[in-house]
């Protein structure tokens, strides 16, 4: 029970649900009972009404039956008709039946009484009266019949009829009574219903009031309180009734109370805190005042700093000197609020920048830079200020006296030298000491800027020097950092990388710069691998790498060296060396060896083979002869080959000496043809001489070899015979000789290689044509040694023409003049300084033969004296003289130092190979012993002729001469 | 007696070999360059072909390659005669399809002996 109460006390909702449930319960019960009562009333009324109506029906039936019987009896008695008599009895039965039915429904005393009386009357009437009357009537006893009716018969009937009527009235009354009762009951029920509704309303009002009291009031109180709290009023909440409750309101009230208390506590603590803060604020206000004071000081300082900052930021970051100076002047003027000013660097060029100055003024300042007003700066190295009256030119339209303030500021370097001076003028007012101090601070900044530029210029110069040095190196040099970026290249490398300028490669990434190289090289991928392994993997042990540039026909060798700074690899230097020459020489060498070996083995095979046959076999004499002939020819061929080979070697290595003289080329050619004619019967030789200038300066034997080779080739390569024409003609300053055949001709593609050693045109027609493959190479070498050229034109199956062109020697004079020349030669005086008597005699004989006047002298001093005395036209001078008081060098020096003798041509004749030294000392020619004496006389002659240009006779026409 | 082709551009060497082998009773055809050699090989069945290395038009090496590409000449015996006697040259020739190699200058008697061996080897 207690539990139950608690259960409800703890929750308003439960209480509410309980109330409503009970209310509904009562309402339903009440309604139901009222309703059932009402319906039972009606039912009972209906039943009674029905009962009464049934009784009425039966009563009427009885009445009707009796009345019928009465009328029948009277009819029968009146009319004597049997059917009436029967009907009487039938009505008796009807009465009986109705009475029985009525008896069954009889409820009241009246009913029973009536039934009894009815029965008695029926009994009387039907059993006594009627039969007696009938009997009497039948018996004709009318009297009796009348007596009967008068004795009571009629009276009893009337009495019964009355009773009957009474009963029926009673029934009607009963019905009315019932109805009235019903109405009364219904009225009662309605009253009860109104009462019920009233009760329900009363209950509802009670519940509402209770709820109001239990929920509304405390909530309202809380709401008011909350509002008060919100309005920040002092609130005390202590409602025991509410807080003691256990339901939601109770909890709410408790929570509310707690909250209220905690708010109050907090408020107190806040108040305390607030007071503290107020105290602090006071203190802060005091401090602020102090700070404001400090701030003012700082702002002043800040202004200064800002100006300084603006100045520094304003200074151009450029490394261009002029740009920086311009920016200094403009910004300085802005800081100083100056109207004009300038800066001058104390370098050789006096580089300067100005602001608001005329050209003339600037020039004047620079002219007197070392003795103007500012001279003080150089001595004191301190700034100073001048106040002066404004000059008329500066005054504009002002008439009154005005002053201008000039500030002179030195810019000091780290070494305390004046590296620049600044001069600024202000019309607006004087400069304070603080201003000047500030400007001095700025000059330090300027000094840093200037030093930066100086450093940059220095490093730029150093860089340029390095670049120039790199560019003079023949190898391509390339410095690549460890990320593969191109850092330094020289000109050669730029060309190698197929770029236009060094700048293009500055900082280029590996992909960018390597592409040009890799694309044109034949070893793209491997070259790439090589470069990458060194750049990116620091592979330092790689051997130099060789690659070809097929388009440029170059062979390049690249090697790499790492560069270290403080033990850390900075990158790699690649050096690309053009080794085309070495490579070609190498290749040629190995080809040459292989070819020589083949060329030698072929004749050797024949010699050895046939010799072996002859030694081991019994051969017929004719075969023996044939073999021996072959052996002989092959051995000769071998010899020719070896000779040719040695010739070529000698010529190529420059060891071949040429005994050059003035020769008539026609005679050489005619001699050659004479010899070659023997070897053929099917060729006709023709010499066409188209010029008279057929003299050349050359070695007769070697020139003969040239034409021998050319003419023998012409014979060999025209196996069907034909004309071989040699044509001699002038072409410009050249003497040309064509050797033309009508033979096989040379395929076009073979022409470029024709003069290469061992090159032989590869075609079937040439298979039977022997040769060493060296002939034309020899021709080329000899002609080259004669400052000439050899070329070829050819048409297949039509023949070839080889053209040799040599420098033309113009025979200016006729044969008669030649004699004059001889006379002139006879006058020429030559002194020979030579201690070897035999050689001296040989030379003397040769020179005398050539028509010179000759004197011999053995030692140096004597020689100098003699030369001074005789003043010869030329001197032949030995160097290693027997007596050591004066060597040939001393003689040479002495002669060249003497103005009178310096012009005399000197030909050194020495075993020493010191040509350069001799020529440097002033010798005109240098002969290394042993030499052909004829060469000496030729040289002297040429020299004299050159010297006396006016009367020249033989003049070799060089290209320079034209 | 065997039918032999000699391809050699040097007339004297042709004479040497032809004389020597004819003395031994062989039937020798001569070719002066690579082209001629190929023509003759196409038209004849040789027991042995002797090829010079350095010949005009086609070198001995080229001749071998062409011959080995002829369906019916895959097995014809070829001997290369060459002044290029280094190991590498010799190997190249053998790789190209030559069966035998002799270096110049060669002894004619040795050549005869080599040929006898080769031809006898065939008989056996």
UniProtKB/TrEMBL annotation, chain A:
Residues 263-308 form a coiled coil. Pfam families: HAMP, HATPase_c, HisKA, PAS_7, Response_reg. Signal peptide: none annotated. The modification 4-aspartylphosphate is found at residue 878. One of its GO terms (cellular component) is plasma membrane. It is found in: Cell membrane. Its main location: membrane. Residues 213-268 form the HAMP domain. InterPro entries: CheY-like_superfamily, GAF, GAF-like_dom_sf, HAMP_dom, HATPase_C_sf, HATPase_dom, His_kinase_dom, HisK_dim/P_dom. The chain crosses the membrane at residues 12-37, 192-212. It catalyses: ATP + protein L-histidine = ADP + protein N-phospho-L-histidine. One of its GO terms (molecular function) is phosphorelay sensor kinase activity. Keywords: ATP-binding, Cell membrane, Coiled coil, Kinase, Membrane, Nucleotide-binding, Phosphoprotein, Transferase, Transmembrane, Transmembrane helix, Two-component regulatory system. It comes from the Bacteria. Its EC number is 2.7.13.3. It is an enzyme of class 2 (transferase). Residues 595-810 form the Histidine kinase domain. Residues 829-944 form the Response regulatory domain. It is a multi-pass membrane protein. This is histidine kinase. It comes from Anoxybacillus flavithermus. The lineage of its organism: Bacteria, Bacillati, Bacillota, Bacilli, Bacillales.
TrEMBL record, chain B:
InterPro entries: Bact_response_regulator, CheY-like_superfamily, Sig_transdc_resp-reg_receiver. The keyword Phosphoprotein applies. GO terms for biological process: phosphorelay signal transduction system. The modification 4-aspartylphosphate is found at residue 52. This is Response regulator. Pfam families: Response_reg. Keywords: Phosphoprotein. Residues 3-119 form the Response regulatory domain. It comes from Anoxybacillus flavithermus. PROSITE patterns: RESPONSE_REGULATORY. The keyword Phosphoprotein applies.
């Amino acid at each position: 029970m207690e539990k139950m109460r608690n259960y409800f006390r703890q929750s308003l909702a439960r209480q509410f649900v309980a109330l409503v449930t009970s209310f509904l319960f009562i309402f339903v019960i009440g309604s139901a009972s009222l309703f059932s009562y009402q319906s039972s009333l009606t039912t009972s009324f209906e039943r009674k009404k029905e009962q009464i109506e049934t009784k009425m029906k039966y009563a009427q039936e009885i009445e009707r039956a009796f009345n019928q019987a009465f009328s029948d009896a009277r009819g029968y008695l009146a009319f004597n008709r049997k059917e009436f008599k029967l009907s009487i009895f039938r009505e008796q039965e009807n009465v009986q039946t109705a009475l029985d039915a009525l008896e069954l429904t009889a409820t009241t005393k009246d009913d029973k009484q009536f039934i009894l009386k009815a029965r008695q009357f029926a009994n009387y009437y039907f059993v006594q009266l009627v039969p007696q009357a009938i009997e009497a009537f039948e018996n004709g006893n009318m009297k009796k019949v009348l007596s009967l009716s008068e004795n009571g018969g009629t009276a009893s009937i009337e009495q019964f009829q009355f009773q009957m009527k009474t009963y029926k009235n009673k029934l009607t009354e009963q019905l009315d009574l019932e109805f009235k009762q019903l109405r009364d009951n219904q009225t009662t029920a309605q009253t009860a219903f109104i009462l019920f509704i009233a009760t329900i309303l009363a209950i509802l009002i009670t519940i509402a009031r209770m709820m109001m009291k239990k929920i509304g009031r405390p909530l309202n109180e809380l709401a008011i309180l909350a509002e008060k709290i919100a309005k920040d009023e002092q609130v005390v909440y202590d409602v025991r009734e509410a807080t003691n409750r256990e339901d939601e309101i109770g909890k709410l009230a408790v929570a509310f109370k707690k909250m209220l208390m905690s708010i109050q506590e907090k408020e107190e603590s806040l108040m305390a805190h607030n007071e503290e803060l107020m105290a602090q604020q006071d203190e802060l206000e005091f401090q602020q005042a102090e700070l404001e004071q400090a701030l003012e000081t700082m702002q002043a300082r800040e202004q200064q700093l800002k100006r300084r900052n603006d100045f520094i930021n304003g200074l151009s970051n450029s490394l261009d000197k002029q740009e920086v100076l311009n920016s200094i002047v403009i910004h300085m003027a802005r800081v100083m609020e100056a109207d004009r000013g300038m800066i001058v660097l104390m370098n050789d060029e006096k580089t300067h920048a100005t602001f608001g100055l005329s050209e003339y003024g600037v020039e004047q300042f620079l002219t007197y830079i070392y003795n103007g007003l500012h001279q003080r700066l150089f001595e004191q190295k301190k700034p100073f200020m001048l106040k002066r009256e404004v000059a008329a030119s500066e005054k504009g339209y002002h008439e009154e006296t005005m002053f201008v303030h000039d500030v002179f500021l030195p810019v000091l370097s780290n070494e305390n030298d004046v590296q620049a001076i600044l001069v600024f003028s202000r019309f607006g007012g004087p400069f304070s000491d603080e201003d000047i101090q500030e400007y001095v601070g700025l000059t330090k900044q300027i000094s840093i800027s200037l030093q930066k530029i100086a450093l940059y210029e220095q490093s730029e110069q150093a860089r340029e020097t390095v670049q120039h040095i790199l560019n003079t190196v023949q190898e391509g040099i390339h410095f690549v950092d460890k990320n593969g970026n191109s850092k330094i290249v020289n000109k050669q490398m730029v060309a190698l990388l197929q770029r236009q300028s060094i700048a293009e490669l500055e900082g280029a990434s590996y992909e960018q710069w390597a592409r040009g190289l890799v694309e044109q090289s034949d070893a793209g991928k491997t070259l790439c691998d090589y470069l990458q392994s060194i750049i990116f993997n620091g592979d330092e042990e790689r051997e130099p790498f060789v690659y070809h540039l097929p388009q440029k026909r170059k062979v390049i060798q690249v090697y790499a060296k790492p560069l270290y700074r403080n033990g850390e690899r900075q990158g790699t230097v690649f050096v690309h060396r053009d080794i085309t020459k070495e490579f070609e020489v190498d290749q040629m060498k190995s080809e040459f060896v292989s070819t020589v070996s083949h060329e030698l083995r072929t004749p050797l095979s024949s010699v050895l083979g046939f010799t072996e046959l002859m030694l081991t076999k019994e051969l017929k004499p004719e075969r023996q002869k044939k073999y021996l002939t072959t052996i002989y020819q092959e051995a000769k061929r071998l010899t020719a080959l070896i000779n040719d080979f040695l010739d070529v070697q000698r010529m190529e290595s420059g060891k071949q000496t040429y005994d050059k003289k003035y020769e008539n080329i026609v005679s050489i050619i005619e001699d050659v043809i004479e010899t070659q004619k023997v070897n053929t019967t099917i060729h006709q030789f023709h010499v066409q001489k188209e010029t008279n200038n057929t003299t050349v300066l050359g070695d007769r034997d070697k020139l003969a070899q040239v034409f021998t080779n050319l003419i023998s080739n012409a014979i060999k390569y025209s196996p069907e015979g034909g004309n071989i024409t040699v044509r001699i003609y002038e072409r410009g300053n050249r003497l040309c000789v064509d050797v033309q055949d009508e033979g096989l001709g040379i395929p076009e593609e073979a022409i470029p290689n024709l003069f290469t050693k061992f090159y032989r045109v590869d075609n079937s027609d040439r298979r039977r044509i022997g040769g060493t493959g060296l002939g034309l190479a020899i021709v080329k070498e000899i002609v080259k040694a004669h400052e000439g050229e050899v070329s070829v034109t050819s048409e297949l199956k039509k023949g070839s023409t080889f053209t040799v062109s040599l420098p033309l020697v113009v025979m200016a004079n006729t044969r008669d003049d030649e004699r004059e020349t001889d006379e002139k030669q006879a006058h020429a005086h030559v002194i020979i300084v030579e201690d070897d008597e035999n050689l001296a005699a040989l030379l003397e004989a040769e020179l005398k033969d050539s028509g010179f006047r000759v004197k011999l002298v053995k030692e140096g001093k004597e020689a100098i004296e003699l030369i001074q005395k005789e003043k010869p036209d030329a001197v032949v001078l030995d160097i290693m003289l027997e007596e050591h008081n004066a060597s040939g060098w001393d003689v040479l020096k002495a002669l060249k130092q003497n103005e009178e003798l310096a012009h005399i041509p000197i030909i050194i004749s020495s075993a020493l190979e010191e040509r350069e030294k001799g020529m440097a000392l002033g010798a005109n020619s240098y002969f290394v012993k042993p030499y052909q004496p004829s060469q000496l006389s030729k040289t002297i002659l040429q020299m004299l002729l050159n010297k006396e240009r006016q009367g020249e006779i033989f003049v070799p026409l060089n290209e320079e001469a034209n | 007696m065997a039918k032999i082709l000699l391809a050699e551009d040097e007339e004297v060497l042709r004479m040497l070999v032809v004389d020597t082998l004819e003395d031994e009773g062989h039937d020798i055809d001569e070719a002066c360059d690579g082209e001629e050699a190929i023509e003759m090989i196409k038209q004849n069945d040789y027991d042995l072909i002797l090829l010079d290395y350095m010949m005009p038009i086609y070198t001995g090496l080229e001749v071998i390659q062409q011959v080995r590409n002829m369906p019916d000449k895959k097995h014809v015996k070829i001997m290369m005669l060459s002044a290029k006697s280094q190991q590498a040259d010799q190997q190249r020739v053998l790789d190209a399809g030559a069966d035998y190699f002799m270096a110049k200058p060669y002894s004619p008697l040795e050549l005869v002996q080599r040929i006898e061996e080769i031809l006898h080897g065939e008989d056996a």
